[in-house]
Specification:
Number of domains: 2
Strand order of the largest sheet: 4-10-9-8-5-6-7
Largest sheet: 7 strands, mixed
Number of helices: 12
Strand content: 15-25%
Number of strands: 10
Order of helices and strands: HHHHEHHEEHEHEHHEHEEEEH
CATH class of the largest domain: Alpha Beta
Structural class: alpha+beta
CATH architecture of the largest domain: 2-Layer Sandwich
Shape: extended
Helix content: 40-55%
Oligomer: single chain
CATH topology of the largest domain: Endonuclease, Chain A
CATH superfamily of the largest domain: Endonuclease Chain A
Radius of gyration: 25 Å
Amino acid sequence: MELAIEKPTDLIKKIYDEKSEAWKIVKKDKNFTKQLSTIEETLSRFGLLKNEIKVYLYLARSGEKKASEIAEGISLHRTETYRILRDLEKKGILFSVFEKPLKFTAVPLDKAIDVLVNAQKMRIKLLEKEKENLVELWLSIPQQQVQKEKKELFQMLQGEQQVALKADELLEKTKKEIQIFAPDYYLAQLYYTDFTDKLKKKLGKLDITLLIEQSPKSVFFMEQLQWPKEKCRMVKTQNLPCFMISDQKELLIAFHETPDKQASDKKKDKTAAIWTNYKAFVWTLQMLFSKLQETGKHSA
C-alpha cells in the first residue's frame, strides 16, 4: 500500500497557509514532519489508501472545504476527489455540510480512529462467524485419502504482527518446555505485544528458561513484568537474534534489519522470522542456548 506523503513537507505546505503563524511554528519544528508521517502510516494500516489519507488530513487541518478547494489544495483531479470524499463519508470519517455549494468536514482524528477500529472489529467478527460455515462446507466435500507423513518444514514470516502471532502460537502448542533468548530490542517487542504476560501465566505449567541481554533496557522490562529473578538469566552478548525453542522440536528465530539511514529516511526497522521443525537447525540453536545459559547469571 502506498503511503500518502511522498515528501511530507509538500503536504504540510498545503495544509498550512505559509503566511500564518501556525506555518511558522510548524516550519521551525523539525519533529512535525516525522509526527505527520507516523499518523499517515497508522491510517494506512486501517485500510485507507494514499489519496484518501491526503484528503482526510487536509480536511482535518483545514476545516470545512468545497470539493474544488480540496482538489486544488492537494493537487488531485476533481473527479477523483469527489469519489474519495464519498468513500470517506461511507467509512464514517467525513461529513457533508448542508450548504450550497456543498462542503465537507472531517471527523476529529480520535473519533475517526474509533470508527476505523470498530469497522475492523466488525469485519473480524463476521469472518469468525463465517469460519464454521466454511469448515463445514469444506468437510462435506469428498476428501482424497492422503497418508500423513511428518516432514521437516520451515515458514518465512514478515512483519512484527506476523512474528508476534507465530510466537503466541508456539507458546500455546508447547506442552513441557520452552526456551527463549531475547535481546533487549526483542524483549521490548514481546512486552508490548503481551507475549511476556502470556508467558508469565505459563510459569506454573511449563518449564520456562528465559535468557535476556545484560542491559538497563532488559532490566527495566523485567521489572515492569515483575518476572521472578530466579527464572531469568542475563547474558553478555551482542548482535544475536531472538529465538524460541519449543519442546526441543520447534524453533522460531527472529531477525531485525535496520536499513541504511543514508538510503532513505522513510525506511523503518524491519522484523522477519523463520519457524522450523528441522531437527539439525533446532539442535544447533539448542546448543547455542545451552552455551549462553552457562555464561548467564541471575539479575541482582
